[in-house]
Amino acid sequence: DAPQAVHWFEQLCRAGIQPNNVAYNAVINSYAKRRDIAGAADWLQGMEDNKLNPDKLTYNTLIDCCAKFGDADEASRWLNKMVSQTGLTPDKVS
User: Rounded to whole angstroms, how far apart are CA atoms 29 and 65?
Assistant: First the structure.
């Protein structure tokens, strides 16, 4: 769940461990599972703010969340951002 994922993330930071894509993706996924695309998007922004490049898994999580909950326009927006701003190639999940 999202609060637990955030707690785990904060524990990493307190321990002096620099969070990587795996840590961010875990939190993003936890928000996506609770249908909180805005929360997931905020964590993606945090990733970018900390000089990490969201990867295909990051974008696929957001795209999948939007698609599962009926927001095709938002799913398309994330797909377009993935391709145009990162150069990542869509896969079966995208």
Answer: 9
- Amino acid, single-letter form, for residue 56: K
> Please, are residues 44 and 34 in contact by the beta-carbon 8 Å criterion?
no
**37 vs 91: CA distance, rounded Å:** 21
The pTM of the full predicted model, rounded to 2 decimals, is 0.92
Cβ neighbors of 39 (< 8 A, separation 6 or more) are: 2, 31
Give residue-wise pLDDT tens across range 61-89. 999 999 988 999 999 999 999 999 998 99
Specify burial of residue 32 (Cβ count, 10 A radius: 0-12, 13-18, 19+): buried
